[in-house]
Amino acid sequence: MANAVEISGLKIIRDGKVLIPALNFSVPSGKIRGLLGPSGSGKTTIFRSIVGVQAIAQGSVQVLGLEAGSVGLRTKIGYLTQSASVYSDLTCEENLKYFARILGTSEISVDEIFELVDLGANRKQLASSLSGGERARLALATALLGSPELLILDEPTVGLDPLLRMELWKLFHRLAQQGKTLLVSSHVMDEAERCDELTLLREGKILATGTPAELKSQTACDDMEDVFISLVGAK
Amino acid sequence: MNVKRIFATTQRILSQLRHDPRTLALMVVAPCLLMTILKYVYQGQPQTFQHAAAAMLGIFPMLVMFLITSVATLRERTSGTLERLLILPITKLEFILGYAFAFALAAFIQSIVVSSVAIGPLGLKVAGSQLSMIFVAVLDALLGLAIGLFVSSFAKTEFQAVQFLPVVLLPQLLLSGLLAPVETMPGLFHFLSHFLPLTYSVDAMKKVMMGQGSFTHDFELIALFLFFFLAAGALTLKRKSK
Q1: Predicted pLDDT at B77
Q2: Where in chain A are the domains?
């Protein structure tokens, strides 16, 4: 399968305001695609349409060959929301085990995932007492459960230190090598360079898509920060 | 329907309660305390205490579960965990049943303790069996849960959710026959009381207390209300939103 996500003619209206006018967007399988854009540009809305929780006015969203929101996709997509959606009044372990049981994955994978996100020492800690970064990692852990084919990660590395960020990006690349598809939004430009391909978004419209190198040569800029400013800032 | 996912949800909710011992204590201690106050308020009128206590035994579980459910489901909605769950293989029915079993168990424990305190130290005389009393109490708790689930979808914040208590439950309380027998109320109120679930809870409890008449009719109507509100609540759990 060529594209893990295939969006065509997507239109989304909220409270009478057109958030996404007409979006055509695709994500190739086995790649890490970054989605960049100022806040309010529609990144989260696009993610929500892909996981099938966004009411759409027009257009089609195909995910792994099925219509977004199909029952067949329920075990195939891992979704990390921007505000870490975990149960504050449960421990890390209880959180992960609950989501694992809902997915029907084995408890062994829970142990592996604790290692992956480096939360082994916090297993018995209540989620409410975690730091912001730890909480984000716990939410990431729930998204990784059941090794989904498609990972939708909304700002996965916000509030994390550079070392941990590097570790997570290594993990993301490992997952892509295994054939998983990752769609990642970020605000941090040095992270953008770690993606295989980037899409820049403004006001629900795509400004540019390409590899980091392509975008740099296109704008004649040396670093991603300038690329972003030159593409997003241009009216 | 997958029993494992229902059970996992029930266990998850019970774990959440376990991590919140204060809520657990309040759930059991508060009704006992209120029952004790009731006993001494009606010190000179043991007959009135009998009637009020019977009604209260049906009202407590409904009130408590209404509050807990509306706040708990609202928290699931606002924290994003509900949306997170609904994109996973769990169905809405499994989610609701998970809640129902967890809170039914909590109501079961609550009603064992409260009815034992009422019958024991407080000297409440029950002609029927304590078991039927607990049965009615658990049924009332589930009704409270169903109404709470339904109502929580109309609230955007926990502040609003709590405000639904006086709006939704207190009128029912006034018209349920707790304060005055339903038959003595003015025509319109008497008529209205037939459409309010709490009326049947109070009636069922009184029947168990006096050991007179069967509460099958009450049971049927409470079950009907229960299914209605559960179905309405399930409809408010939407996978897609704007």
Answers
A1: 87
A2: 86-147
Angstrom distances, CA of residue B126 to CA of A98, B52, B110, B178: 42, 13, 18, 17
Eight-class DSSP state of A223: S
Distance from CA of A95 to the nearest CA of B (A): 8
B242 in contact with A at a CB cutoff of 8 Å?
yes
Calpha distance B228→B211 (Å, rounded) = 29
Phi, psi for residue B195 in degrees, rounded to 5: -100, 5
- Partner-chain residue, chosen from B9, B15, B239, that has the shortest CB–CB distance to A90: B15
Q: pLDDT digits over A138-182, tens only?
A: 999 999 998 899 999 999 888 788 888 888 899 999 999 999 999
- Report residue B157's pLDDT band, with 50, 70 and 90 as the boundaries: confident
Please report where in the chains the tokens 């970020």 appear, as a residue.
A186
- In angstroms, the Cα distances linking A10 to A15, A55, A95, A113, B63 are 17, 11, 34, 35, 46
Residue B44 forms contact with A (CB below 8 Å): no
Question: Quick check: helix, strand or coil at residue A211?
Answer: coil
pLDDT in tens, A55-113: 999 999 999 999 998 899 999 999 999 888 999 999 999 999 999 999 988 767 788 88
Mean of the per-residue pLDDT values for chain A?
A: 90
- The complex's ipTM? 0.87
- Is residue A96 within 8 Å of A114, Cβ to Cβ? yes
Is B166 buried (19+), middle (13-18) or exposed (0-12) by CB count in 10 A?
exposed
Q: How far is CA B171 from the centre of its chain?
A: 15
Query: Is 70 exceeded by the pLDDT of residue B229?
Result: yes
Buried b (16+ CB within 10 A) or exposed e, B13-22: bbbbbebeee
Domain boundaries, given as residue ranges, for chain B:
3-235
Do A102 and B16 lie within an 8 Å CB cutoff? Answer: no
Residue B62, Cβ neighbours under 10 Å: how many?
28
Instruction: Give the global pTM.
Output: 0.89
Over chain B, what HEC string results?
Answer: CCHHHHHHHHHHHHHHHHCCHHHHHHHHHHHHHHHHHHHHHCCCCHHHHHHHHHHHHHHHHHHHHHHHHHHHHHHHHHHCHHHHHHCCCCCHHHHHHHHHHHHHHHHHHHHHHHHHHHHCCCCCCCCCCHHHHHHHHHHHHHHHHHHHHHHHCCCCCHHHHHHHHHHHHHHHHHHCCCCCCHHHCCHHHHHHHCCCHHHHHHHHHHHHHHCCCCCHHHHHHHHHHHHHHHHHHHHHCCCCEC
**Residue in A closest to B81 by C-alpha:** A85
Tell me how crowded residue B84 is: count the other CB atoms within 10 A of its CB: 24
